[in-house]
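User: I've been going back and forth on whether these two constructs are worth ordering. Before I decide, could you fold them both?

Assistant: Sure. I'll take them in the order you sent them. The first construct and its structure tokens:
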Amino acid sequence: MHLEGGLKMSYIIIRETKEKYLPDLMNMWNDGEVMKYVNYPNGLGMNGFKMESWYKWLQSQGDTKHFIILDDETGFLGETFYCYAKKNKPASLDIKLIKNARGRHVGNLALSYAIDMLFKNTKAMTAYVDPNKENLPALSLYKRLGFEKVEKQNDLYPDAVYMEINREKWQKQRLESIRLAPIDRDNVFPVCFLKVKDDQKNFVATNSLSLAQAAYQTECIPHAIYCGYNLVGFLMHATDEKDGLQWIYRLMIDRDFQGLGYGEKAMKIVMDTLKKQSKSNRIRISFEPTNKIARQLYEKLGFVDSGQMDGDETIYEYTWQ
């Protein structure tokens, strides 16, 4: 998500809540305009002691994760979280944004992230939200994300609209939303800041290095991988000058979004494109021999060992008639 500001485009950061963000959270929770739809028109009346107590409680909750939403230039925008408190019961979700964050697709991006993390990190099969019936922006957001209204009596919050989405539906629509987009001034910084897991750093060049390569090797075509509004990875392909074959030079998925099928779907998209461009009915890719995850993915997609090496990397090929 990228928002215009200054010499570069600002972008949205979502990260697990740390103690340093408690003052921002407290100010938002004490803002009656933000809290009116959860029956606190005068705010929660939080203070430093209460915030520290809440934070200690949060650290003790295994299947509850709370995230801060930030703009890299202007700072705090809001919160989102998931809570899978009762096994075999729907997990709860919520999002709150300060006034200046609304109308900028921040809610879609941040809540999508929270739902991804919920279904990735817990065994929850269903998630629910329960917005106030008069909170029309929230109702619109949840409907766009695929939540459906379920009739359920709520004596504590009679004005709440109970809505659910299940794991299978969410994952299906997320995979359908995977797309490749050009790298431009709007997204170049966020692409450079994507990270793999620490034990994967030796398997793939940084995106910054790949973009530098593409700047001088014009046959290289870099892409950002998006899932809906979420930037989830990077891919670069080329027609190799040495052998004239279609190559996939780079593929990386940000560490937060790994394990959700996004890399496989991005590969299928680019393979369909390269099959139309290829004159030899062959696509190549190379990787470190010790990268077992990459090997499993490429073999699943139909790549086989060519028996050749590119430096220290194994070359795999995909061919078709």
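The second construct, handled the same way:
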Amino acid sequence: MPILFEIIWNLLLLAQWIVLAQALMSWLINFQVLNIRQPIVYKIWSALGRILEPVYAPIRRMLPSMSGMDFSPLVVLIGIMVLKQILLRNQMAFY
């Protein structure tokens, strides 16, 4: 496999795992499994927020308000999956 393809693929996988980690962590915080007052939890939560907020903000502006439900992580995950499929279908362009 060409190195450029692998770099792009791994960046998409990393982005996918970061979004999933943030979504899972938000559920655990909302169900009070994790406490945001713990220093390590707060550091991880704020770091994920700083990384993902620039991605989520434009999507949140486009989506209609859903009474407290945030579907922007789902939209980002679908976008990553679409990008991965496009990358796979055009894999021969990297040779």
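Notes on the second construct follow. Helices lie at 3-30, 39-62, 72-89. The mean pLDDT is 94.
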